[in-house]
Design brief:
Elements (H helix, E strand, L loop, with lengths): L4 E6 L8 E6 L7 E10 L2 H8 L2 H6 L9 E9 L11 E4 L2 E2 L5 H4 L10 E2 L11 E5 L3 E3 L6 H4 L2 H11 L8 E5 L3 H12 L4 E6 L2 H9 L4 E4 L5 H8 L5 E6 L4 H9 L1 E9 L11 H6 L4 E4 L7 H12 L8 E6 L3 H10 L4 E5 L4
Parallel strand pairs: 10-11, 10-13, 11-12, 13-14, 14-15, 16-17
Antiparallel strand pairs: 1-2, 3-4, 3-8, 3-17, 4-5, 5-9, 6-7
Helix pairs in contact: 5-6, 5-11, 6-7
EC number: 1.1.1.103
InterPro entries: ADH-like_C, ADH-like_N, ADH_Zn_CS, ER, GroES-like_sf, NAD(P)-bd_dom_sf, Zn_alcohol_dh
Keywords: Metal-binding, Oxidoreductase, Zinc
Length: 350
């Protein structure tokens, strides 16, 4: 890296792939924090951007540096910044909120009408440096390892979803065991869930869910999911259903196994509109249905940190690969293959 420039992976133009570039180091405004990225992770959103699917084509405006799961060291701060200083170890809430809209002024910062998502709507963290507002910076406790600090964003999704209602002593089904689903299994168990079923079609993901404490593993193509859960719960069903996949089949099965009066927490995003029998599945069942978006800012972050520091939540089994930045394209292909959990890329790792 020469003076005034940095390494970055960029979506330089519409179409598949990312390009390794030398980019200008981003400037710092009076309330901004510039972070020297030390590790980042690849998530499903990044894969959509790499592959340039329908969603990416409609949302992304190249040139863009993707990446929103990261950690790093504060390199410099704006003149009005008071929360952090150079040398602090940090990560960031990647939903950049305005603070002025109707949602923000009611404390719903994660639902900001004018939200900008890091690495989607503004330049992201697949780079030597990233700049975010002071209000979005989160200081990382020194006892939290680098690879875990890099995945606070998706872990926060799991914490928000799992803890969106009562947990202790209750039974749950988690549909979709990607990294966030597996994290959610661990959060539920650490918060006192009595029984958790994990449902997916990928054997590797089910193995990771088991390592996170799942009591029952169900393969959607091999097992009678609904019957198995109803049998295991004496026909009553589960008290909570977490839908993390966006699958129409998972949503259908999830309502079928939900106990009367249970809660449904929806984080997975369907690829197209879905149909549901509202009378049968929601009204007569007395179900509470929640849409989960991002993380409560910053309530979720304090809960997440407390669970990690307590030792009750250990997400390391889900982080199956820790690679170097030079392995970026290998990491993308590995993530695409479904043969990995969470992949973290660490600066200077060979």
């Amino acid at each position: 890296m020469t003076q005034g420039t940095m390494w970055a992976m960029e979506k330089s133009a519409p179409g598949p792939g990312l390009t390794r570039i030398t980019a200008p180091i981003p400037n710092v405004g009076p309330r901004d924090v510039r972070i020297r990225v030390t590790a980042f992770a690849i998530c499903g959103t990044d894969l959509h951007i790499v592959e340039w699917d329908r969603w990416a084509e409609s949302r992304i405006k190249p040139p863009l540096i993707p990446g929103h799961e990261f950690t790093g060291i504060v390199e410099s701060v704006g003149s009005e910044v008071a929360l952090v200083r150079a040398g602090d170890r940090v990560t960031g809430e990647t939903h950049i909120y305005c603070g002025l809209c109707y949602a923000c002024r009611r404390g719903l910062l994660h639902l900001c009408k004018n939200v900008q998502i890091l690495g989607v709507d503004r330049q992201g963290a697949f780079a030597d440096f990233v700049v975010i507002p002071e209000q979005n910076v989160w200081k990382v406790d020194p006892k939290i390892p680098e690879e875990i600090a890099a995945v606070h964003d998706p872990l926060g999704n799991a914490v928000h979803t799992a803890l969106a209602g009562p947990v202790a002593g209750l039974r749950f089904a988690v549909f979709g065991c990607g990294p966030i689903g597996c994290f959610a299994v661990g959060v539920l168990k650490s918060a006192g869930a009595a029984w958790v079923a994990a449902i997916d079609k990928n054997p590797i993901r089910l193995e990771l869910a088991e390592k996170m404490g799942a009591d029952r593993l169900l393969h959607v193509e091999r097992d009678a999911v609904v019957r198995s859960i109803l049998d295991a719960t004496g026909g009553d069903g589960v008290d909570g259903m977490l839908e993390m996949s966006g699958s129409a089949g998972a949503l259908r099965d999830g309502f079928e196994v939900l106990a009367n009066g249970g809660r449904v927490s929806l984080l997975g995003i369907p690829s197209k509109p879905l149909e549901i029998d509202v009378a049968k599945e929601i009204i007569f069942r007395g179900a509470t249905v929640q849409g989960i978006n991002g993380r409560w800012i910053f309530d979720t972050w304090y809960r997440m940190e407390a669970l990690l520091l307590s030792g009750k939540l250990d997400i390391r089994p889900v982080i199956t690969h820790v690679l170097g930045w030079d392995d970026f394209h290998q990491a993308v292909e590995l993530q695409r293959s479904g043969k990995a959990g969470k992949i973290v890329l660490v600066r200077d790792r060979k």
